[in-house]
Design a protein that fits this description.
- It is a single chain.
- This protein is α+β, with helices and mostly antiparallel strands.
- Helix content is 31%, strand content 12%.
- The protein contains 3 helices and 6 strands.
- It has helices at residues 2-28, 136-151, 156-164; strands at 61-63, 68-70, 88-89, 99-100, 122-126, 129-133.
- The strands form 3 sheets. The protein has a two-stranded antiparallel ribbon. The chain has a two-stranded antiparallel ribbon with strand order 3-4. Strands 5-6 form a two-stranded antiparallel sheet.
- Strand 5 (122-126) and strand 6 (129-133) form a beta hairpin.
- The chain is rod-shaped and about 115 Å long.
């Protein structure tokens, strides 16, 4: 019984040693590639690198702002030093222009007096704040639309007909 136990232990050790040696032997035959600027670990994934050396099949793309290859889901490609601030007209209707950092992507179909003039309204960042820029076309259109409102207060059809003639 003792000989059988010793034989079993020797066989288990022998099998373990064979497995370790086989793993080392087959592992030594794999080609390793040095890590690239995109942080590739050196494993061969397949595909070719782009003109910046980024490995596209592994998900790397060139980030101009950071001047390196990166995976955008791991690290956003944006320049933290100079954040872009949006500045635009926030209101969709009317003549009282509101400038801000949240201009609408789309406006409702509802029409109000002065909406025609909004195409001339401009906002820009001045002294670090989003402000309306004086635009002579907007001012002229606004004055005309306000005149139409004062002339035809009780008749919305006449107000819109008058406004249609405003430039």
């Amino acid at each position: 019984m003792t000989n059988e136990k010793n034989l079993t232990i020797v066989i288990v050790i022998l099998v373990a040693v064979i497995l370790v040696l086989a793993g080392m032997l087959f592992g030594a035959g794999k080609k390793q590639v040095p890590a690239d600027s995109g942080g590739n670990s050196g494993q061969i994934i397949g595909g070719e690198k782009d003109e910046h050396g980024c490995l596209g099949p592994a998900g790397y793309s060139w980030c101009q702002a950071k001047q390196k290859c990166l995976r955008v889901w791991e690290e956003p490609c944006e320049d933290k030093a100079a954040p872009q601030q949006t500045c635009g007209v926030e209101n969709c209707h009317g003549l009282d222009i509101q400038c801000g950092i949240n201009p609408p992507g789309a406006c409702t179909m509802m029409y109000q007096v002065g909406d025609k003039c909004l195409k001339y309204a401009k906002c820009e960042i001045k002294n670090g704040q989003c402000q309306q820029t004086i635009n002579p076309q907007f001012e002229q259109c606004k004055a005309c639309a306000e005149k139409c409102e004062s002339i035809s207060k009780n008749d919305s059809v006449k107000v819109f007909e008058c406004e249609a003639a405003c430039n």
